[in-house]
Structures are given as C-alpha cells and as structure tokens.
Amino acid sequence: MTKYKPFYTLNSLLPISIMDRYLAMQLWPPFFFGVGAFTSVVLAIDSLFELLRKVVESGLPLTIALQVFLLKLPYVIVYAFPMSTLLATLMTYSRLSSESELIALRGCGVSVHRMVLTAVTLSLMVTGLTFVFNEHIAPVAKYQATQILEAALKSDKPIIAKQDNIFYPEYREVKQPDGTTSRILARLFYADRFDGTRMKGLTIIDRSEGGLNQIVVSESAEWNPSQNIWDFYNGTMYLVAPDRSYRNIVRFEQQKLELPRTPLSLAEKTRDYDEMNIAQAYEQLAIDRLSGDRQKIRKLEVRIQQKIAFPFVCVIFGLVGSVMGSIPQRTGRGTSFGISVIVIFSYYLLLSVCGALGQAGILSPFVGAWLPNFFGLTVGLYLLRRVTQR
Q1: What values do phi and psi take at 215, rounded to 5?
Q2: 1 by DSSP, 3-state: which?
Q3: Domain extent listing, the chain
Q4: Beta strands in 195-344 (DSSP E)
Q5: CB atoms inside a 10 Å sphere around CB 178
Q6: How far apart are CA 182 and CA 209, in angstroms?
Q7: Residue 75 phi/psi, 5° resolution?
Q8: Could you report the per-residue pLDDT of 323-377, keeping only the tens digit for each?
C-alpha cells in the first residue's frame, strides 16, 4: 500500500494525494460507461422509437431523423450525468470495499470522510458540467430539433402556437419637476386570443403621445408584413383629451395602425419549458405574470427553480453512492447497477411529486424544486454518520 502523502499544486490550496488520483482513475471509467448506457436507454425510450415511427408512417427522411436524434443527445446527457455519478461512485467504492482496499486505507489512518471527499469533489465537477449542458447546450439543441422536425413534417407551413390572453406593455421615461425620472406606461396591447393567424378581441391603450391618448377596441387584427403595420378590423377608436374627456369617437371596418410587431412575436413563441435557458425562462415569466394566469405562472416558477436545483443532484448522488459503497459488503456490478436504478427511480419520483405540489400551490416553487435535494443530502449525511460509527 502506497503511503498517503498529500501535495499541493500551485493553483489549488486543497491537498491532492496519491489516493485521490487513484480513486479518480477508478471513478471515471464507470462514469463514462454510465453516461453511454443511460443515454442509450433514455434515447431509445424517449426518441428513437418515435422517430422510427415517423420515418415509417409520415415519410420522415432518414437524414432528418438522424439530425433530430443527434440534437436530442445533449438534453438526454443532462439527465445521464447524475445517474452516471451515482453508478460510478457506488460501483467503484463497492468494489474497493469488497477487495478490502478501503479497509486498508482506514488502517493507514484515512477517515471515511476523507475517502468520500474525493467522490464529492469529482461530483462537483460533474455538477458544473451538467449546468453548462443544461443552460447553454441542451435548450438550444432541443429547440432546433423541434423546429427541424416540425418543418420536415409540415413542409413549408410554420407551426404557430395558439395562445390566450396576450399582454404586451411598453413604458417610457418621464422627467419629473424635481429632476428625477419615473417609468410610466406608454402603451398597452391586449388580445383575448391568438389563433395562429389573427389576434382576436383586442384592446389597445396608447399614451405615447403626450397631449392625446387613444383607446382602440377591435374585433380582430393581423400583422401586415408588406407595410410593417397592423390591420385592425371592426372596431372603435376613442380619442381622449388631456382632461380625460372624449375628443372624438371613430368607428371603422378596417384601420391601419403603426404599432410594434412585438406582441405577435411573443404570441408566436413556441418554446417549451425544456427549450429555454434560465434567462429566457425569466423573460417568459415576466410576460406570464402580466396575463395573470396563476397556474401557468407557478408552473414556470417551479421549472426555473428545478433548472437551478437539478445540477446539484450530482453532488447528492456522489455522496450517497460513495457512502453506500463504503459499507463493507460483497456486491458485484449487477447489484450496484440495481441499487442505482432504485435510488434514481426514488429520486425522480420524489422530484415529480414535489414539483406537482409546487405547481398546485401546496409547496412554494423553491421548496417544490429543492426538497428532493435536501432530502437526498439528509440521507447521505445520515448514512455517512452511520458508516463512520462502524
């Protein structure tokens, strides 16, 4: 047994021993094996069979199917990272325990905490990698996959999502007599529904002109791309004087108004929650809050917290796997894989239940997203305490 001699690198204040390097070399192979195995299984269940069905039934070209398949890889890899961390730590530490190597390390004075620290440190690295994939790679790739698949199945006809309660406010800065500036509403665009072509049931409040306000109520409206203006149909325009009295009322069958296209751009957004990064999700949350749809708002709030909390499950799994593997026992790779599947299933079941409770308003969005991590951390620390007392 090599003597435990920590040394210090120039770029780090943490001791890196021969034991750390040895454990790291033992952990990486099963980790990469787990990434490949779990990615293959999830892809086969989630995407492969569905793409093959589209190739056979809908005539989807094989090149397009392959492209979509590859673009969905980052999204699946994000979920494979935590599962592979658990498998790698549990398999490695179980093997070292069954071969009495961990017992030898403890005989040399190395504590269980110190042995587990190596796995937790590597799990932190995987946490950072998971965050990068989940934030910068997976959303973009999955959105591109959705667009390519829809374009191939619907030829040149774009897919536009129907939406209800479209709000779009505009603000302007106004200088006050005391020299300060305040932000006030300049224009408010509201539509009851967007059917994919036209806005229905519109109310526009325009306060962009300092001395005159106008209110437009219209049955429908559509964007005129050739002139970059809105065409409103069957409505009434109310002109309001600065003293809030009616100056004029105009009824029209068709009226052109120079308003920004932004409300239509917002209504045309078809990104799913999994196709947005955190910044885009917060932008969508600000829009959803204007609509007042509490269920939709809470769902997005929970999803944002879950997107932040999810990468840290790698640390939880690294702790739980290394502690469980450190328990003296005789387990093979098959047993380690089975235990990993049970732990993973239990975690994702708890994640789904807590997320649903958060969306229902029973738990706050923060608690609904982070409770599975807190529970896993508690279990890991409890197991660590039990192992150190042996």
Answers
A1: -125, 125
A2: coil
A3: 18-155+305-388, 163-266
A4: 199-206, 213-224, 229-240, 246-257
A5: 5
A6: 17
A7: -65, -40
A8: 988 877 655 566 777 788 888 899 999 999 999 999 999 999 999 999 999 999 9
